[in-house]
Write a structure and sequence with these properties.
With 319 residues, this protein is α+β, with helices and mostly antiparallel strands. It has ten helices and 15 strands. Strand 4, helix 4 and strand 5 form a beta-alpha-beta unit. The structure holds oxa(dethia)-CoA (UT7).
């Protein structure tokens, strides 16, 4: 039994905000710097009051529609997010309430930008075990809420959005192999080191990053985990039709693809349009390439995530 993608959907809030617009809003930056260093041209920023569960709901409705599945048929709902609506209940339970589903198992996964790939990995195990038949797996983020708009080294990089897939138990292949890892000793290179305690914010409530350390780490582990995933499936990287890496920086994406020997014509890139949307970035890119007809049924797709923790992982699937 395989976990097979039955439908995909995504959602980006509002209109794209350009690099020049960020500069006009007071960020000490230029379009030239951002495009050269990151490949990012625009991002979407949620309005005040729009939450991760709101965007997860929009993306999920589209994924359910494309799968031809009704919300009440779901028996598993997993939301990957580092920007949940509340401390609790989970964003997955809030999404479940909005969808009108009662009874599915629902919980969040917190693995930052690897979150969606981690969540797919978990859902795959439930479906393969036979305990669950229809899963909704979502990545949803409002990173704009945890950005320090006075820190130009981070605030230009991130955006908001959501992406979702419906997985179904199927005898037709689906997810072929997964791999996921973490190294907690690297927790300090990308973090939001704050919390709410006694009614006060303690520590630092904004995203902090050692960009160069993250860059080096990301290229190494994205190569390693893609190889590991191919090995687990008994396939070569040349068998991969589409590589969909975490959309953080075009230079990380290009370096990873080059090391793997996968031409950029077989890599899905959307970072230019929505920046780094953390757990939402992989399903946003997957949905874009399915909707525009690049990805076809039967093709092999490698999804990859890397993020704070540090965490990383990959999922190799037959669409
Ligand atoms: O999910 C994972 C998320 N994280 C990432 O993907 C980040 C990975 N890292 C990176 O993408 C890159 O390290 C960055 C894009 C963040 C930075 O690029 P860099 O080539 O490592 O630049 P840098 O940090 O070495 O900074 C170079 C210069 C500095 O000026 P000085 O000190 O050389 O005068 C910065 O102050 O660029 C300056 N700078 C900026 N200038 C204009 C930093 N941010 C900006 C900015 N606009 N937004």
């Amino acid at each position: 039994m395989f976990a097979r993608i039955a439908g995909v959907g995504s959602y980006l809030p509002g209109l794209p905000v350009s690099n020049d617009e960020l500069a006009r809003r007071g960020v000490d930056t230029t379009d030239e710097w951002i495009v050269t260093r990151t490949g990012i041209r625009t991002r979407h920023l949620a309005e005040a009051g729009t939450t991760s569960s709101d965007m997860a709901f929009e993306a999920s409705c589209r994924a359910l529609e494309s799968a031809g599945v009704k919300a009440d048929e779901l028996d598993l709902i997993i939301v990957a997010t580092s920007t949940p609506d509340y401390i609790f209940p989970s964003t997955a339970c809030l999404l479940q309430g909005k969808l009108g589903n009662v009874g599915a198992m629902a919980f969040d996964v917190q693995a930052v930008c690897s979150g969606f790939v981690y969540a797919l990995n978990v859902a795959d195990k439930y479906i393969r075990s036979g305990s669950h038949k229809k899963a909704l797996v979502v990545g949803a983020e409002v990173f704009s809420r945890i950005l320090d708009w006075k820190d130009r080294t981070t605030c230009v990089l991130f955006g908001d959005g959501a992406g979702a897939v419906v997985l179904e138990a199927s005898e037709t292949p689906g997810i072929l192999a997964t791999a996921a890892h973490a190294d907690g000793s690297q927790n300090g290179i990308l973090s939001v080191p704050g919390q709410v305690c006694g009614g006060q914010v303690t520590g630092d409530p904004f995203l902090r990053m050692d960009g160069q350390a993250v860059f080096k780490f990301a290229v190494r582990v994205l190569f390693d985990v893609a190889k590991e995933c191919c090995d687990n499936a008994g396939l070569a990287t040349s068998d991969v039709d589409w590589l969909i890496p975490h959309q953080a920086n075009i230079r990380i994406i290009e370096s990873t693809a080059k090391k793997l020997g996968i031409p950029m014509s077989n890599v899905v890139v959307t970072v230019d349009q929505h920046g780094n949307t953390s757990a939402a970035s992989v399903p946003l890119a997957l949905d874009a390439a399915i909707r525009d007809g690049r990805i076809q049924r039967g093709q092999k797709i490698m999804l990859e995530g890397v993020g704070g923790g540090f965490t990383w992982g990959a999922v190799l699937l037959q669409f």
